[in-house]
Amino acid sequence: MANIMEMAADIVAAHASTTPMSKEELIAELNEVHSALSSLEKGDIVETVEEVEDTPAVSRKKAFGKDKIYCMICGKGFKTLSRHLKTSHEMTASEYRKQFDIPRSQSLASKNYSESRRKMAVERDLAGNLAKARAARTKK
After folding, report:
1. Which of 41, 47, 52, 81 has the CB geometry, 3.0–4.6 Å to 108, for a possible disulfide?
2. DSSP structure class, residue 20
């Protein structure tokens, strides 16, 4: 079995491979993981403290790009944020907006994605079909 330092290094390396981290953050995380593993080996109870970051991973200006929208929590880029927020961060779009003071008028989808969806709706005449359906419903 690997020693505690090797296990801690493997855990931190796996985390660092998916999350950009500075040298200081790597060292701090390595120390935290090592002390947690040491405590577990001794049979002590390890208390976890969930950190709530006040500073976003990316600035609001960078977060809302033309091709991608970046999550301000983890910094990953997507076409839309809704599904990512639910699955990765277990929060709704309104909670996300409230946390980072994002106005309701700001879309949580990239500009190009929104534009392509708008063009598709115009090509398929979805607004006309909706108007026809409403008119048929009012006649009944």
Report:
1. 81
2. -
49-66 burial string, b = 16+ CB within 10 Å, else e?
Answer: eeeeeeebbbeeeebbee
How many residues would you count in the chain?
140
Closest residue by Cα to residue 87 from 58, 96, 64, 33: 96
* Distance in angstroms (rounded) separating the CA atoms of residues 92 and 94: 5
- Per-residue pLDDT tens over the stretch 42-58: 888 766 655 555 677 88
Count CB-CB contacts under 10 A for residue 96.
Answer: 19
pTM for the model stands at: 0.54
List CB contacts of 130: < 8 A, sequence separation 6 or more.
none
Neighbours of 19 (CB within 10 A): 13
- The burial class, CB within 10 Å (0-12 / 13-18 / 19+), for 126 is exposed
The helix/strand/coil state of 39 is: helix
Average pLDDT, the chain: 86
Burial classification of residue 139, based on how many CB atoms lie within 10 Å of its CB (0-12 exposed, 13-18 middle, 19 or more buried): exposed
